[in-house]
Give the backbone structure.
Amino acid sequence: MSAGQSTAPLAWRPVRAVPAVPLLVAAGVLPLIAVVAGQISIAAFAVIGAAAIVALTVATLRWPQPMLVVVALSPIIDRFLLAPLVPANLSLVTRFSSEGLLGLVSLALLVVSIRRGTFIAAIRHPSTVALVAFVALSLISVLVNRVPVTVAAAGLLFTLDAAVLLYLPRMVGFSHRQVIIAVSVLVAALGVAALLAIGQALLAPTILGMQGVVGRSGESVRIGSVMRDPNVLGTLLAMLLPFALFALGRRPPRRVLLILGVSALVLMSALLLTYSRGSWLGFLAGFVLLALVIDRRALVAAIVIGVVALAVVTWMPRNLLVSRSAGPTQQVQAFDLMTTTENRIRAVNQGKDLRSMFVANAIPILRDHPLVGVGPGRYGGAVAWDLGTPIYAQYGTNKIFPTWYDQRTVDNFWLHLLIEAGVLGVLAFMAVIGLVLLQLFAALRAATGSRYVVLAGLISAVLVLCVSTGTTMMLEGNTVAFVFWLLLGMASLYGRWAPAWTDALGNPEPVRTAARRVSATPS
């Protein structure tokens, strides 16, 4: 090797073998054609749907950064937008099309990254060691507890499949500007969902085929927008709202200030209408406490927006399109924060809260299996419910699941993980996330302007989800997990462990091409 030749890996370059316009049309139109074909023929749906996933995969090779955002949003699209449009016997297939898309995209980007020399640097991160440790501990638990292979494989897959999105952004690279665009697209998408949620309260819970959810703590209707699940909507809103609030704390120009203020107000109002106390708790711990330490101007902005949003959801008109004869569960009543929260606290104190009952039931299981748990797929998640587990009968867990409500999980991802993987497994899984957070905090010290907003927002989004999933299974259900792991992957592009060809901090990095050494220009 000559003295002047760089040892850096080849920079990622988009694959341009397929013409752009036909590829873009195919990726955008084929999913819609598949939905229409599903009304006529299952075979046509399968063939066209497979072609759509292939087209989206090829589009990812050509436009990797924007398409990874599409992949992150795909569980929301297939489960909540496309599934209601196809016959009932095809809805299950539609629900899992996002996993198929993620698998093909991951395989394609893996092959290309290995050929171009970006793979090793992409996985060279301390979190990889923690992730390997978690898998190793899970395999030890499988052997110790003699978990059937199918159950163990499904349990690990449901927990870790979305984690590949931690590495895909590192393989393709994101500039700081591209990170801003990706976050802006996510915020805009949730902004549309938030506007629809407000429309449900203002007009009718059933507008555009949406449905409200009757609360179990005295709420008339909990709003879930197109996602129909208030906890899913609330968690995503709580994760993305901090980006607007931290931007407001930077005192932007008046026009930008207006846009950010309106966006934050819409997101905050919809967050209140979900009645998702887990999301509220995640927001308080993941944003309010963080802002109290690092950015009190953003905290002041949040308080002002919060007061206005509370006034909006309390006094806004309701049910403008609802018949007066409609039942109480078909009408959104006035927002009542205090009464519903008191009802939930009373249920906890009386031992009637399901989450509290699951925690109490899990203590003897943890006492008997403290270090590596009962094994993946054996407790708390959808796999244990669908494939069965002897743990439920042995410890009486099956007696807690209500017969009057379609409950399949313990609604607590960390409890689920603690019992399945034990204390050591939970610590390893937390380290995967925590090592990226430490990297972000280190980079935040020198960050200014938009970089400060992005870094603070990413830290807050990660913390919000980590707290919120203590009352839900968001890191097992991929509707939120895809977005979470993509944000974590983009977060890992800042600071010390960013791959050499990525320019997330805006600093030119030397990149070797096949012909000569050049300097990357920040985008």
Observations:
- Residues 1-10, 504-523 have pLDDT under 50 and may be disordered.
- The chain is about 65% helix and 0% strand.
- The radius of gyration is 24 Å.
- Strands lie at 510-512, 517-519.
